[in-house]
């Protein structure tokens, strides 16, 4: 349903440097599937999702690749055509609902605006539908909520309202970028459960951007691990947790507290993601990798298939 090929999104900095924030990313999301992109901040996961929505602003630019949704290459569309697709065929939920919601309009108005624009409903139909949507996402008094303003809702309820707006036009693809990072842990689970329910009900594909492996473990079907603007490992969730291949994935998993991992054994990956205009010549993880060999500093490995569903970008898994 969503197919991204060879995506490159670069940022052209003042001093003629180029930050290769997303560099050759391939991904697919099928209907009904939850694909998680996981990585530290600076790994390129948010830029990937913004590129899919075509919300990249200067000095950033999508310089190469293909993004097709339901068989149409979005990169060939005009701004007007793209505006029709955004909010209609695909919708996005951001980390901080307060910045995505307009504080001067009621929740109802923000839903009806989308419905009137994309679905050509009249005022009455749109309001009816807004109330139904608010009920669907768990507002017990939807008839009242529809006339309330964002500041009258709690953080969790605002995120529910965002979900109502996002699903109002039955999108095929929902992109959620750290949708619960700003919320309390108990509310986080409720919001993720809701998104997961909506995904099933509406048969959407869900692209979930997160730095939280606990969230991945609970909700993802497939996982893409990003580092330095590239996918370094991809696999169905169960293989990734059982049998991680890339040293970066291993490091991430070691820093995950679990029943087997008491706090004293918590590993962390030394160092930080290098800035995107200063990636090393070789493997982008080489400056932090405990297994780095000579060739790791000379050239960057390709993403290679270990089997038809598990792929890794690392010289530990190549023949020569
Ligand atoms: Fe480590 Fe080398 Fe593999 Fe990169 S290619 S992750 S430096 S072992
Ligand atoms: Mg981010």
From TrEMBL:
Any Gene Ontology CC annotation: plasma membrane
InterPro entries: AAA+_ATPase, ABC_Ni/Peptide_Import, ABC_transporter-like_ATP-bd, ABC_transporter-like_CS, Oligopep_ABC_C, P-loop_NTPase
Predominant cellular place of this UniProt entry's protein: membrane
GO molecular function, one term: ATP hydrolysis activity
Keywords: ATP-binding, Cell membrane, Membrane, Nucleotide-binding, Transport
Keyword Nucleotide-binding: yes
Membrane topology field: Peripheral membrane protein
Subcellular localization, as worded in the UniProt entry: Cell membrane
Domain ABC transporter: 2-253
Pfam families per the UniProt record, alphabetical: ABC_tran (PF00005), oligo_HPY (PF08352)
Source domain of life: Bacteria
Biological process (GO), any one: peptide transport
Family: Belongs to the ABC transporter superfamily.
The protein, known as: Peptide/nickel transport system ATP-binding protein
């Amino acid at each position: 349903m969503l197919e991204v090929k060879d995506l490159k999104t670069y940022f052209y900095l003042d001093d003629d440097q180029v930050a290769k924030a997303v560099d050759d990313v391939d991904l697919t999301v099928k209907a009904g599937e939850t694909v998680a992109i996981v990585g530290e901040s600076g790994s390129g996961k948010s830029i990937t999702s913004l590129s899919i929505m075509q919300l990249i602003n200067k000095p950033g630019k999508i310089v190469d690749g293909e993004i097709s949704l339901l068989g149409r290459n979005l990169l060939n569309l005009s701004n007007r055509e793209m505006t029709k697709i955004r909010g209609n065929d695909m919708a996005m939920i951001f980390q901080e609902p307060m910045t995505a919601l307009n504080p001067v309009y009621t929740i109802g108005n923000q839903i009806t605006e989308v419905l009137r624009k994309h679905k050509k409903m009249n005022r009455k139909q749109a309001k009816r539908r807004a109330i139904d949507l608010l009920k669907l996402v768990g507002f017990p008094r939807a008839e009242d909520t529809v006339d309330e303003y964002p500041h009258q809702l709690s953080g969790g309820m605002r995120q529910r309202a965002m979900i109502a707006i996002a699903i109002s036009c039955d999108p095929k693809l929902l992109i959620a970028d750290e949708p619960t990072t700003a919320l309390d842990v108990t509310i986080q689970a409720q919001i993720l459960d809701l998104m997961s329910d909506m995904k099933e009900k509406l048969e959407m594909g869900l692209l979930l951007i997160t730095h939280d492996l606990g969230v991945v473990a609970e909700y993802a079907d497939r996982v893409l691990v990003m580092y330095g603007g590239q996918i370094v490992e991809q696999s169905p969730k169960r293989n990734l947790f059982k049998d991680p291949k890339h040293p970066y994935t291993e490091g991430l998993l070691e820093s995950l507290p679990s029943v087997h991992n008491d706090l004293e054994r918590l590993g962390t990956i030394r160092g930080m993601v290098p800035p995107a205009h200063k990636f090393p010549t070789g493997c982008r993880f080489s400056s932090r990798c405990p297994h780095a060999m000579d060739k790791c500093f000379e050239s960057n490995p390709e993403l290679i298939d270990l089997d038809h569903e598990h792929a890794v970008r690392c010289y530990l898994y190549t023949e020569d």
